[in-house]
Write a structure and sequence with these properties.
This protein has helices at about 15-30, 35, 50-60, 70-75, 85-95, 105-130, 135-155, 165-180, 190-195, 220-230, 245-255, 260-265, 275-285, 300-315, 340-355, 385-390, 405-410; strands spanning about 205-210, 235-240, 290-295, 320-325, 360-365, 395-400, 410-415, 420-430, 435-445, 450. With about 475 residues, it is of the alpha/beta class. It folds into 2 domains: about 15-155, Orthogonal Bundle (DNAb Helicase, Chain A), CATH 1.10.860.10; about 190-450, Rossmann fold. The radius of gyration is 29 Å and the shape is elongated. About 35% of the residues are buried.
Length: about 475
């Protein structure tokens, strides 16, 4: 057998030779016992290299004939017999006091020690990074946090049954729980038709893209949706990379009080407008632990992921919204890397974050200018890279920017009966778990907000390229 491995200070890394020998001996005595540990441990979990080689050989031979003779023959033909300890060592494995019925316990001991070694390796890597001044410390911490999270999740999932029967049973249990009102894992957006398209709302781990041309109102839609969510008792985090938090608060006050943002900005009110703004400020203040605004310009993917993990850990978020993907940077990467490759890496990182935190991630995105005269399609996603492939849901906002006085007569009426809601199309272009199609919502220009409207309203189609306002 190979000499035991020591770490840099002479201490033996966590392992248990007796458990490793016992499990190998048990498998040679009863190959069918392999089913009890299948998926629980793998060859790399063994500390001794020789034991790892023997386990890998046993895993291969169990599909045919497995005993002492076939194992020795297989190892000899592959040139691994001496690495595994030789004929005598393998013979000793079946002569020890091994109880086959305890094989699951042996596997748990081996797995725990393997995890301890991985934890040590991670700590060692972080220590080395701490002394490497060429390494970007935020990237080191981000990578370390991700690896530690993966190790933790892997511990949590090590006993999962991946069989079809178990998965079907879980799916059916969820159906029954929903029927009985015991489970509601959908996050309503507050836009009734969109929620219907998404089978009741956004799902955990959804990576959602909301895209439009400049000045159409992506941010207004995102803030309207978040206001709907917090009014429904949910918690959201908003990464605003383009607009400072004070302006977002002003928009929310305008939406909630129905007082135009221009009046709030100039502090010039009439009638009861000031009182309405005060009442809205009180309402929003009372929801202070439901919405968190990170207004950092040009944040890196590493910083964004780190802040998102921290806020979610402290507050158990229901959703994260990012405005917008084009303003996220990569802290590492070639300076000559094409922009679409950068965006592709960022998109994959955001998708991974949604999976890790198990909550919907809504990301705003721009579309290319060739969609000025027609409704945007998936290929119009700017620097799309893998955005289209990564996304679970892709929505486009589409409307004419500037209406003529005649066209304004086709506006929908707001709750006060005024024709002030411009009919806008929300196009669901991709939806992994639901329908695709388009429907109408209303945009209130003075309040910079979106609301539900009746679907019978007429839509004013853009007919020529429009200049940005």
């Amino acid at each position: 057998m190979a000499e035991p491995k020591n770490n840099d200070i002479g201490r033996m890394l966590p392992h248990n030779d007796d458990a490793e020998k016992a499990i190998l001996g048990a498998l040679l005595l009863d190959p069918e016992a392999f089913d009890q540990i299948s998926g629980k441990i793998k060859a790399s979990d063994f500390y001794q290299r020789g034991h790892s080689i023997i386990f890998e050989a046993i895993s291969y031979l169990r599909e045919g004939t497995l005993d002492y003779i076939t194992l020795v023959d297989y190892l000899s033909k592959n040139g691994d017999l001496e690495k595994a300890g030789g004929v005598g060592y393998i013979a000793e494995l079946t002569n020890q006091d091994t109880i086959v019925n305890h094989i699951s316990n042996y596997a748990e001991i081996i797995k725990e020690n393997s995890r301890r070694r991985l934890m040590y390796q991670l700590a060692t890597k972080l220590t080395q990074d701490a002394f490497d001044k060429s390494a970007e410390i935020k990237d080191c911490l981000d990578n370390g946090a991700a690896e530690l999270t993966n190790l933790y999740l892997e511990m949590d999932e090590s006993g999962i049954d991946y069989s079809l029967s178990n998965i079907v049973e879980q799916a059916f249990d969820r159906i029954v729980a929903k029927m009985n009102g015991e489970l509601d894992d959908k996050l309503e957006t507050g836009f009734s038709v969109l929620d219907k398209y998404c089978n009741g709302g956004l799902s955990p781990e959804d990576y959602v893209i909301v895209a439009a041309r400049p000045s159409i109102g992506k941010t207004a839609f995102a803030i309207s949706m978040m206001l709907n969510m917090i009014n429904n008792g949910k918690k959201v985090a908003f990464f605003s990379l383009e607009m400072p938090g004070a302006k977002i608060a002003t928009r929310m006050l305008s939406m909630d009080s129905k007082v135009p943002a221009s009046k709030i900005n100039t502090a010039r009110f009439i009638d009861d407008e000031y009182q309405r703004v005060m009442n809205s400020a009180d309402r929003l203040f009372s929801k202070g632990n439901q919405m968190f605004i990170v207004d950092v310009a040009n944040i890196s993917l590493t910083d964004l992921r780190g802040k998102a993990r921290l806020i979610h850990k402290e507050h158990k978020l229901d959703c994260i919204v990012i405005d917008y993907i084009g303003l996220i940077s990569l802290s590492t990467g070639r300076s000559d890397m094409p922009n679409h490759e950068k965006v592709s890496q960022i998109s994959k990182g955001l998708k991974s974050l949604a999976r890790e935190l198990k909550i919907p991630l809504v990301v705003l995105c721009q579309v290319s200018r060739d969609s000025e005269e027609r409704a945007p399609i998936l290929s119009n996603l700017r620097d799309s890279g893998s955005i289209e492939q990564d996304a679970d849901v892709v929505c486009f906002l589409h409307r004419k920017r500037n209406l003529t006085e005649e066209e304004k007569l086709k506006n929908a009426k707001d709750s006060d009966g005024r024709a002030s809601l411009q009919v806008t199309k929300l196009i669901v272009a991709k939806n992994r778990d639901g329908e695709t199609g388009e429907f109408k919502i209303g945009f209130h220009d003075q309040l910079t907000s979106y609301v539900d409207i009746d679907q019978s309203h007429e839509f004013v189609e853009p007919t020529s390229p429009e200049k940005k306002r």
